[in-house]
Design brief:
Rhopdopsin 7-helix transmembrane proteins; mainly alpha; 3 strands; three-stranded mixed sheet; about 325 residues
């Protein structure tokens, strides 16, 4: 195959979630509202955690990083998907398509490992409460946040290595709202069976290993909680319920798509919406509406910003003290 054929495809056509023109305005409004809610909800969590000294603990530090990761996950493709709902022909350049593949595996892979880091934090808090602050030091927390970013980067580079040099010289329609790696790979002009297996093995290994680590850790935690009866254990049980809900909603679609790659494309599109849009909006709801400390901190933050007179009084008093 000559070089001309290798570089023939310069853009891909995204078929989107639906081809129905009557449905496009409804989807545009729906996903615009969801995207705005995701940004506001997750940035509110980050602002609340950083502004309230009582929330400067390992658990909330990891939660703020999860919110930031959720913003990244929802932003790699959703803005373009929303904009594409207003046009008839949805195209994306080859370079932008490769960028979407890079970022989806970077952020999604990183979030999988970050959820494992959060499970480690809960394991130490519940199973070794007397040593919690010693084990979960600031240095350890930073490492637990850096590891997901490093793993996500290594994972996405390994995935792109299978794809970026493939020859694309004919079909260019991707039956999704973003450049999903298994779908793009099938458009190559060569037999990609082996490449597809490597992609599934790579993503499947990360998904399943992270999921199994979470299952083991939460099993140990649940056994510990079951054998103890106290108010703190009741609070821990509530926190665990929230964590397990997030893990199920995030890992379920990912495992189904990449570990079970022979499902229908229409099913894959629905599942892709789950881990790129639905899960990031559920995280703020699950972690805030069930958490009294977060609700109290948000109420305090709301009172601070909605009462400018109070803020100006504090600033004026601070200025007076400074000048004395």
């Amino acid at each position: 195959m000559n070089e001309t054929n290798h570089s023939q495809v310069t853009e891909f056509v995204l078929l989107g979630l639906s081809t129905s023109q009557e449905l496009q305005p409804f989807l545009f409004v729906l996903f615009s509202v969801l995207y705005l809610a995701i940004l506001l909800g997750n940035f509110l969590i980050i602002l609340t955690v950083t502004s309230d000294a009582r929330l400067h603990t390992p658990m909330y530090f990891l939660l703020a990083n999860l919110s930031f990761m959720d913003v990244c996950v929802v932003s790699f493709a959703t803005p373009k998907m929303i904009a594409d709902l207003l046009v008839g022909r949805k195209t994306i350049s080859f370079q932008a398509c490769m960028a979407q593949i890079f970022f989806v595996h970077f952020f999604a892979g990183g979030e999988m490992v970050l959820l494992v880091s959060m499970a480690c934090d809960r394991y130490v808090a519940i199973c070794k409460p007397l040593h919690y602050m010693t084990i979960m030091s600031r240095h350890v927390c930073i490492i637990l946040v850096l590891i997901p970013w490093c793993v996500g980067f290594i994972h996405t580079v390994s995935q792109l290595a299978f794809t970026v040099n493939l020859p694309f010289c004919g079909p260019n329609e991707v039956d999704s709202f973003f450049c999903d790696l298994p779908l793009v790979t099938k458009l190559a002009c060569i037999d990609t069976y082996v490449v597809s297996l490597l992609i599934v093995a790579d993503s499947g290994f990360l998904s399943m290993s992270s999921f199994l680590l979470l299952v083991v850790s939460y099993t140990v935690i649940l056994i510990t909680v079951k054998n103890r009866f106290s108010a703190s254990m009741a609070k821990a049980r509530s926190t665990l319920t929230a964590h397990i809900t997030v893990v199920t909603l995030f890992f379920g679609p990912c495992i189904f798509i990449y570990v079970w790659p022979f499902s229908g494309y229409s099913v894959d599109k629905v599942l892709a919406v789950f881990y790129t849009i639905i899960t990031p909006i559920l995280n703020p709801v699950i972690y805030t509406l069930r958490n009294k400390e977060m609700k109290a901190a948000m109420s305090k933050l709301k009172n601070w910003y909605l009462q400018p007179g109070q803020a100006s009084t504090v600033i004026r008093n601070a200025f007076v003290l400074e000048t004395k």
